[in-house]
């Protein structure tokens, strides 16, 4: 019998040699996400730091699939934290971006929680564990060098 248990958290860190304000603006705006990672993301942050995010990729990956996901923005604290929920697996998971000034730039700490050991969650957790590492690399390259990787259509 398949028992649902909590999966380990996904944890990544990267150093980006730009000010924390620039990193936060890139992760907390539609224009920022679409510049380095997604194709048609929309997000709205309310005055209390909550809101909604909708992440969209078109013709993504080797199978050229269209992906749409997103959910609630739980916490948006300028230049400190951006937290949202989405559902790449069976249920919502929570993605925490934490921004810390470090030396001449920003330490970006990413943590994702909420996966179970269901087959769909396990597949999503493995994909996101790899994917967030790649995503943070894309964010770093975009912010430090202005380079954007997008597949040719």
Low-confidence stretches: none
Please tell me the CATH architecture by its name: 2-Layer Sandwich
**Helicity range:** 25-40%
CATH class: Alpha Beta
Strand-residue fraction? Answer: 35-45%
Profile the largest sheet.
Answer: 7 strands, antiparallel
Number of domains as seen in the coordinates: 1
CATH superfamily: START domain
Word description of this protein:
The chain has helices at residues 20-27, 30-36, 119-145; strands at 10-16, 42-45, 51-60, 65-77, 81-86, 93-102, 105-113. It has 3 helices and 7 strands. The protein has a single domain, classed as START domain (Alpha-D-Glucose-1,6-Bisphosphate, Chain A, domain 4, 2-Layer Sandwich), CATH 3.30.530. The model has no long low-confidence stretch (mean pLDDT 93). The chain is globular, with a radius of gyration of 15 Å. A hairpin with a 4-residue loop joins strand 3 (51-60) and strand 4 (65-77). The N and C termini lie far apart (44 Å). It is an alpha+beta fold and 153 residues long. It has a 7-stranded antiparallel β-sheet, with helices on one face. The longest helix has 27 residues, at 119-145. Residues 17-144 form the Activator of Hsp90 ATPase homologue 1/2-like C-terminal domain. InterPro entries: ASHA1/2-like_C (IPR013538), START-like_dom_sf (IPR023393).
